[in-house]
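Backbone shapes recur. Consider a single case.
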Amino acid sequence: MFFAPRRRLPALPDLVTVSLPDRTVAVDLRASARATRFTLRLGVGAPVMTVPEGTRLPDAEAFLDRHRGWLAERLARRPDHVAFAPGVLLPFRGEMHRVDHRAEARGTVWREVDADAEPRLVVAGGAEHLPRRLRDFLVRTAKADLTPAVATHAARLSIEIRNPRIRIKDTRSRWGSCTADGELSFSWRVVMAPPFVLDYLAAHEVAHLREMNHSRRFWRLVRDTCPEMDAGRRWLKLHGAGLHGYGPEA
């Protein structure tokens, strides 16, 4: 008895677009062997649609088309972009800080609390340098906070860090990643979140050094080293997307 070879379905693209009343939106498309149904969420930055493996592109596009109204409503709730500029309020380690520009001051960027107990991020130098200096400060601080957090969780889980380099990026669809050769990457915007969120993300990516998946065993590893795992995940789900409303560009 002879059987015809099974026809392989074409691979799904990484992105699909959907037209909303006021814009065209790119949506991250992900196929998952564990998914049993179609889901759509805002995610971190770009919306994310997850579909079961073997899904045909027309079916994914039809699902997205049926949920255009839901997506438009959720996107409308996001805060307007806040450009780095003198006087704006900016989250830093979970607390709102006033950006204080002091052109005559020496140095770059530092934190202080004024007489009214308002936290401030003070930026020295010319106004044209403020957005870049503030972003550089946040990138440096993110790496400074993440480096010991990664080392702590690796020690707790008895995981050897083969590649000690931590990369800081401006990723839009995820907060962190772990490559097959053990390189860990994080979004610099995590430094805007409360410290327990940054700690959870460090634990999450360190656990991937042992389990390159999101199995039950993986989540047990994360919980073993990070008791505040649930709080960190919940905070990101509720507030993470809003952090992309802040940035150097207007």
Summary: Residues 94 and 194 are 4 Å apart (CA to CA). The radius of gyration is 21 Å.
